[in-house]
Amino acid sequence: MKTLRRFSVIPLLVILSVSCSDSNGPDTVTIEDFAGTWVASRFQITDPSGQVLPVPVDLIRDALGSLRITVAANGSFTGTFKPTAISASTAVAGTISLSGSTLTIGFTSGLNDSIAGPFVLNGDELTVTGTNLTFDWEGETINGASVILVMDR
């Protein structure tokens, strides 16, 4: 009987150890978790109409652009954005905010459009997926655009 009791305790210990895992999902992330310097490794814009951008364009990989921001513990940030290899760098500033599982990167200068959507923070890699956004692409407006932004710290 004692052996049976010992074996019945094992599943209970397994359940307790799994339920106490150290998860870093969107429910446990705070603004302070974004503090640091981030460099974009992907900034892909897709035009659902295909009229302005016939194919998805990655400003980092395809156009050799760059985006670098330094985020303070309160969510404010400053940095630089260069949309293409031949463009001039533009100073950017703004704030990062959280609402449930949605991350918003709001620009107060340098870019006009916020990027908002579900996100994944995996250690020092941040991925934000925004949909139904409006972007200005070289003087033309893209409505309903989707964006994938991947940044590394």
What does this structure look like?
The structure is a single chain. With 153 residues, the chain is mainly β. It has one domain (27-152): Lipocalin (Beta Barrel). It has one helix and nine strands, in the order αβββββββββ. The chain has one helix spanning 2-19, and strands at 36-46, 57-58, 66-71, 76-82, 90-99, 102-109, 115-122, 125-137, 140-152. The protein has an eight-stranded antiparallel barrel. The longest helix has 18 residues, at 2-19. The chain starts with a helix and ends with a strand. The model is unreliable at 1-26 (pLDDT under 50).
Per DSSP, what share of the residues sits in E-state strands of 2 or more residues?
Answer: over 45%
Main beta-sheet annotation: 8 strands, antiparallel, barrel
Basic shape: globular
The CATH superfamily is Calycin beta-barrel core domain
The end-to-end span amounts to: 55 Å
Number of helices: 1
Radius of gyration (CA) equals: 21 Å
Helix content: 10-25%
Output the CATH topology: Lipocalin
Q: Mind telling me which CATH architecture this is? A: Beta Barrel
Mean pLDDT over the full residue set: 84
CATH class: Mainly Beta
Strand segment count: 9
SSE order, as H and E?
HEEEEEEEEE
Query: Stretches where pLDDT falls below 50 for ≥5 residues?
Result: 1-26
Strand order, main sheet: write it out: 1-3-4-5-6-7-8-9
